[in-house]
Write a structure and sequence with these properties.
By secondary structure, the chain is mainly α. It has a single domain, classed as MetI-like (MetI-like fold, Orthogonal Bundle), CATH 1.10.3720. 73% of the residues lie in helices and 0% in strands. It is globular, with a radius of gyration of 24 Å. The two termini are 38 Å apart. This is Inner membrane ABC transporter permease protein ycjP. It is a multi-pass membrane protein. Keywords: Cell membrane, Membrane, Transmembrane, Transmembrane helix, Transport. It is found in: Cell membrane.
Length: 298
C-alpha cells in the first residue's frame, strides 16, 4: 500500500510541475501576446455581448442600424412577454424542463461512464485489435453530424426508439470524442501505479474507480461540460415528435416563433439558452484547457 501511495504522489507531482513550468519571454513579447489575445478575445466575445444586450432592448432598438452594443433604454418587457407565452402553453412548462433534465443528466452521465470504461483497457492494456479499434474511433471524429444523420435515424428507427428519450440519449452516450479524450489522458498514468494496486490486492473495478478516475478528473469534467452544452440545446430533431417529450429548447423556440413583434421574445430566448452552458463553462474552463493539452488536441 505504501508503494501505491508513493507512485500516486509521484504522478501528481509531475502534473503540478508541468503546470508551474513557464516559457521565458521578454516584456515586449508578453505585451504583444496580451494585445493579440485581447483583440481576438474581444472579437470572440462580441456575439455573446450582443445576445445579452438584445435581450434587454426595447423593440424599436432591436432594428436600429448600425446596432448599438449597449441598450439605451433597458427593459425587461421581453422576459415578461416570454413568461406570458409560457403561461398560455397547453403543455406545462415544467414538463419541457423535466424532459431537458432527463436527457441532459442521463446522456452526460452515461457518456462519461461508458467512454471511461472503454478507454481504460485501450490505454493501459495490449490485446489483439487494440490499434484497429482506436483507429476506428479516430476516423469517426472526421465525420460531421450531418453526414451520419441518416444512418443514425435508420438505426434508431429499426430499434423502435423513435419518439423516446433514448433516441437522443443513446447517440450521445456512443459519441466517440469522449473515448478519444479519456484514452489519451489515461495514457499519462504510469503502469507502475496500476501494478502496485494489483499487488496490494485491488480489483480492476477498484483500480478504475478509486485510482484511475480521480487522476483523470480534468478529462471527465471536460466531457461533462461539452456534452452538457450539446444536450442542453437539443430540440429533439427528427427523433422526438410528441409534444409531451419535447425538450426546453424546442419549447422556447416554438414560443418565440411568430410575427416580427416577437423579436424581443426571441432575443430573451437566445439569452436564456446561452446563459446556462456559458456559466457552466466559465466555472470549469481551466479543466478543458488542461485536458486538451494532455490529449494533444489543438
Amino acid at each position: 500500500m505504501q508503494t501505491l501511495k508513493e507512485n500516486k504522489l509521484t504522478f501528481l507531482e509531475k502534473i503540478k510541475y508541468k503546470k508551474k513550468k513557464k516559457l521565458n519571454r521578454s516584456k515586449l513579447g508578453n505585451f504583444a501576446l496580451f494585445l493579440f489575445l485581447l483583440v481576438f478575445g474581444a472579437f470572440s466575445a462580441y456575439p455573446l455581448i450582443m445576445t445579452t444586450s438584445n435581450a434587454f432592448k426595447p423593440l424599436d432598438e432591436l432594428f436600429l442600424f448600425p446596432p448599438s452594443l449597449i441598450p439605451k433604454n433597458v427593459t425587461f418587457d421581453n422576459f415578461r412577454d416570454l413568461s406570458s407565452l409560457i403561461a398560455s402553453s397547453w403543455i406545462p412548462f415544467s414538463r419541457y424542463f423535466f424532459n431537458t433534465i432527463i436527457i441532459t443528466v442521463v446522456g452526460t452521465a452515461g457518456h462519461v461512464l461508458i467512454a471511461s470504461m472503454a478507454a481504460y483497457p485501450l490505454a493501459k492494456y495490449k490485446f489483439p485489435g487494440r490499434n484497429f479499434l482506436f483507429g476506428l474511433v479516430v476516423y469517426s471524429l472526421m465525420f460531421a453530424p450531418q453526414v451520419t444523420a441518416i444512418p443514425n435515424y435508420i438505426i434508431i428507427s429499426s430499434l423502435g426508439l423513435v419518439d423516446t428519450y433514448a433516441a437522443i440519449i443513446l447517440p450521445a452516450i456512443a459519441a466517440s470524442l469522449g473515448l478519444y479524450l479519456m484514452k489519451q489522458f489515461m495514457e499519462q498514468i504510469p503502469m507502475e501505479l496500476i501494478e502496485s494496486a494489483k499487488i496490494d490486492g485491488a480489483s480492476e473495478y477498484r483500480i478504475f474507480f478509486q485510482i484511475v478516475m480521480p487522476l483523470v478528473k480534468p478529462a471527465w469534467l471536460t466531457l461533462i461540460i461539452l456534452l452538457f452544452q450539446r444536450l442542453w440545446t437539443t430540440d429533439g430533431g427528427a427523433f422526438i415528435f410528441s409534444e409531451e417529450l419535447k425538450p426546453l429548447s424546442y419549447a422556447l423556440r416554438q414560443i418565440a416563433q411568430g410575427s416580427i413583434e416577437r423579436s424581443g421574445t426571441i432575443a430573451a430566448v437566445s439569452f436564456i439558452m446561452m446563459i446556462v452552458p456559458i456559466t457552466f463553462f466559465i466555472i470549469s474552463q481551466s479543466r478543458i484547457v488542461e485536458t486538451f493539452s494532455h490529449s494533444g488536441m489543438k
